[in-house]
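Quick question, first post here. What does this chain look like in 3D?
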Amino acid sequence: NGADAQADTAVFHEPQKIIYGGIFAFWEDIDSYLDLCKIGGGEFYLAGSGPLDKQVMARIKDEEIKVKFFGSLKRDEALKLFSEMSVGIAPSVKTLTRQVASPIKVFDYLSCGLPVVTPRVGQWGKIIEKFDCGIVTMESDATEFRQALSELQDEKTWKRKSKNALEAVKEYSWDKVLAPLKKALVV
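> Answer (accepted):
Ran it through. Tokens below.
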């Protein structure tokens, strides 16, 4: 996966504006994001849809989880929303599929200058660590995510990681990601 840097990029916010934007499916472990919302410590936003729509909506209602829900957005709308946030959360289960498939949301977050908080799963956690553009937790766990968010409340730390996110996405621009495929297809 890849992304291209966006014209509109995130700025530091107090309180933090924390987003999960993506599919509502078991492999995304959206429950750990909802658990984080319950812990609190910022403003929480949710955008997306998927096979777990009913369960996600029921949990938000039944547990009175404070999260602003945007529903399913077109990609340009999602990127605009991401640029208005402070941190992008990318929870995940630790299955073989997730070990080999990076979620596009991570690259979309980076393209907007959002530091990413994600568990140590798959290649994307290594990218976050390599470029120092977020915080990688050991597990997809609300308590660990909350600790990571606490570190990102420091404006100097946040600005460094945001700047690094925009640098990282240069290495994963669509032109660079697709270059080997273009080369292979040229006869």
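Strands lie at 17-23, 43-49, 68-71, 87-89, 116-119, 134-137.
The two ends are 24 Å apart (CA to CA).
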